[in-house]
Structure formats: C-alpha cells, structure tokens
Amino acid sequence: MTRPAAAKSNPRNLDTTEKAGVGRIITYAGAILAFLIGSGFATGQEIMQYYTSRGFWGIFGTGVVVLVLITYVCVEFMTTGRREKFDKPSDIFGYYCGKYIGKFFDYFSILFVFLSFTVMVSGAGAVFEEHYGLSKYLGGVAFAAVVGLTAWFGLNRLVDVIGKVGPVIAIIAVALGLISIFRNGGLTDGHNLAFSLDMTTASSNWFMAGLSYVGFCMLWLAAFLAALGATSRSKKEVIIGSTSGGVFFSLACIVVGLGLLATVESVFDSQIPMLVIAKQLSPVIAACISAMILAGIYTTGVPLLWTVSQRFWRDGSRGFKYGTVGLAALGTVVGLILPFDQMVNLVYVINGYVGIVLLAFMLVKTVTRSVSSRRAPVSA
Asked: What sections of 185-282 are H helices per DSSP?
C-alpha cells in the first residue's frame, strides 16, 4: 500500500484580513502569542518547571536566554518564509539542515507537534478535574471535539481567529502574575523555598532550561511561521510583528514566573498553578481564569492540529477534515493516559533538546547567509 503524497500548503489559508500595516503587525504578534500560550503557559505548569523551579536564576537567567533566542527564531522563521515561499512549510527544515537531516526534522517535528496536541488535551482535562470537579476524560474529549469541529467547518482565517485572542490571554496572565507579586510579596522567601520543595524541573540548570524551552517552541513554530511569513506584504511588518510577539511572550513568562514564585509554597504541587492564585483572590476570578486557560489551550491546540493535518492532506479537503477528526480522537486517547505535569515534562523537555540541534543549524545558516550576502558583488 503506497503512502499518499504530502499535500502542498495553501498559505492563503493563514492570511489575515487586516489591511493596514499596524493591524497586520498586531495580528502577527498575536498569532505568535496565541500559538505559544498553550496549556503549559496558561496553566502555569511549564513556567513552574522551566522558570520558577530555579528561583531567581531560573526566572531571570532562563528569561534572558528565551528573550534573545525566541525573538531571533520568530524573526528568522517569518522572514525566511517570506523570502523563500516554500512549496510546503515543512521545507524550511531542509533549508536550514540540508536534504537528509532536514527530512528527519520534518518528520520528527510532526510527531512532536502531535504529541504537543496531546498535552493540550491533558491540560484541558486537568482544568475540568481541578477546577470544575468533573472527570478529566470529559474535559479532554470536549476539548478535542471543539478543535476537531473547528477544522471540520473550515478555518480559512486561522490567524484572525487566534491572533486577537492571544494578546488578551497574555495580558490577563501578566496581570494575575503582578497581583500575586504585590499581594503576596516574599519573592526572596520564594527563591529560597524553590530549592527545598519537591518540584518537577525541566533541566539541571537555568541555562539548559532556557535552551530547551526555546527548542520545543521552535519545533512548534517552524512550519506555522514559514507559512505565515509567505502571506506577508512587507518585510517591515514581518520584522516588527515577529519581534513584538517574541519579546512580549518572553516578558510575560518572566512576570508569571515571579507571580508563581511569590506564592510557590501554595502552588508547587498543583497541576494548575494559575488557578490556585486565582482562587486566593475570589471564586469569580477563578472562574474567569479557568475560562482563559481553556481559551489559551484552544488557541494553541487548533494550529497544532492544523500543522499535522496539512502535512498529509490539502487544507479544507474531505481527507483533511476526516483526518483531522481522526487525529483529534487519537490525541485524546494519548493525552489522557498520563497526568498533565508528567506530560509537560516528558514531551516538552525531550523534544526541547532536539530543538537545540535545529537552533544550532539555524545560527550557522544565518551566519553563512550573512557572510555570502556581504561578499556578493553589488550590481551597478
């Protein structure tokens, strides 16, 4: 039985309806935020493991590493996608790594992106269980059904759908982090406690945690931003939009990390740390935050599932619709096997180190391309 050829991407399905430059810049930045703010960030679980677990070193050390590298990655992926106009977004791996290694990253990234979708399912289940007192299986199935139906009925303006939601979620998460800092204080006490508590950590030190965090984000972003960059109308929009998205996301991670550190004794063993902070304020705020978390999971879950499906079927085709629903069902089964915090630690950390290798190839390519352009003769 022969395998179906991978469908070519249709970048227009990622285009935005925004006409003005400022509007498109905001939408590009929002799309990056929405893609990165998934179950791990919105719940606070990945921030706990990558940032807060290492105290001030984790928050500021990891934070600076992520700020510099994730901004570079976002700009590089989008500008390369705009310049090269790949037949398939996944061709970006071959551009950086060559034919054979690029093929490995292509298939590996698809597997990782699918596993990341299972983390979204697990996160949705954890919210239903920890906040609403309902079965995590109900939450996981409901989340997967909504994502599958979104793809089934078509998502011709994916960026417009998620690009407006991402900044709102990020702002709310930052506000909650700031409230926790000013309300609880005790950042120094939290820093000292972080090393004595039995917390799940993403790496043995803050620097490797930063590299690993960027690594797994890269495998998420590569094909998506390559396709998004191909729809852009100007290089200026791409650079400003991608820089804004990367910088704001990185700063949001630092603020949320500090907020969790301020109340680390209460949240260190929670599946959903952000909900713990919200419950300390009021039940109404907790209800709003639970809705925000589910929205954040949704805005990441949809493009993750889209990225996998479009790799094998033409977007919008019958095969794409049925394939997406099938993948959503499979992701539900996998995502509900392990507890949410274990899913984050297993999937994100392992794949983060593979992403570091891709980062090395990208840096080499960027340097060699810059050197070649400087040596190229200038036409009269």
From this structure: 187-194, 206-230, 235-262, 264-267, 273-281
- In 3D, which of 236, 218, 237, 201 has the Cα closest to residue 51? 201
What pLDDT is attached to residue 19?
53
Tokens coding 356: 């570091």
CA dihedral 62, 65, 67, 72 (to 10 degrees): -150
Residue range 17-59, pLDDT digits in tens: 555 578 888 888 888 887 787 667 878 888 998 999 889 999 9
Using an 8 Å Cβ cutoff, are 96 and 361 in contact?
yes
Sign of the four-CA dihedral 68, 347, 357, 11: negative
Provide the Cα torsion 68, 98, 115, 72; round to 10°: 10
Instruction: Specify the pTM.
Output: 0.81
Give the 3-state secondary structure of residue 4: coil
**Tens-digit pLDDT profile for residues 79-97:** 999 999 888 888 999 999 9
| Location of structure tokens 């797994």 | 216
Give Cβ neighbours of residue 57 (< 8 Å, ≥ 6 apart): 206
Residue 350, both tokens: 């392992």
Give exposure, 153-162, as e/b (b: 16+ Cβ within 10 Å). Answer: eebeebbbbb
- Please name which of 221, 276, 208, 268 lies closest in space to residue 65, comparing C-alpha atoms: 208
Q: How far apart are CA 90 and CA 313, in angstroms?
A: 13
Whether 57 contacts 50, CB under 8 Å: no
pLDDT of residue 199: 81
| Single-letter amino acid, residue 52 | T
3-state helix, strand, coil in the chain (%, to 5): 80, 0, 20
